[in-house]
Task: structure prediction
Amino acid sequence: MKKCTKLSKQGYLNKKKGIVLCKGNDGYEIFVFVGKYYKGREVTMWFLILTVLVLNVVFLFMQKKLTKIEIFSTCMFALVFELIVNIYLDLKLDWYGYFKKGAQWGSVIAIFGIYPAANAIFLNYYQYMKNTVQKFIYIIGCSVFSVVYEYLAILSGYFYYHQWKLWCSAIVYPPIYIILVLVLKFVRKVINRQYERISQ
Result:
């Protein structure tokens, strides 16, 4: 445990609640107040692990409207898409990242624990939307939720911004969700064509 030296004007201290919020070069970081010392990374990892557990439990127990091949195909696309984007925006340009600059083992938990489950949950409940208006509201609602969660991830310390801004995420989330829907439609089209060939 180390002393938090980033308080003054850049930090927020609430000893009664036992929480310290510090702002450093890698963004915000939450610390638990213990006497004169602060434990930071435990809060960071617990928030990430809790997210992974909740998403994957929801995925496992939800009533599935997608087939196994649809789930597998779209989840693989979501993973590859995320990894390609991160190679350029995170590792090359350093606009944002997980924990701190460079490749981190913790980012493996975030990428493989969050994105496949989030993709499957989004596409699964998208099937319940009956018309264009409902689909539009659903995509916007998921985008708002994603922006709020990303803000909490920054506060927790496992995600940080450099050149990237929260409003950038607000702009790109709707197109990302639309791309996931289009990929699912493409997968279904390929599967249907394959069945047609087999049945001939």
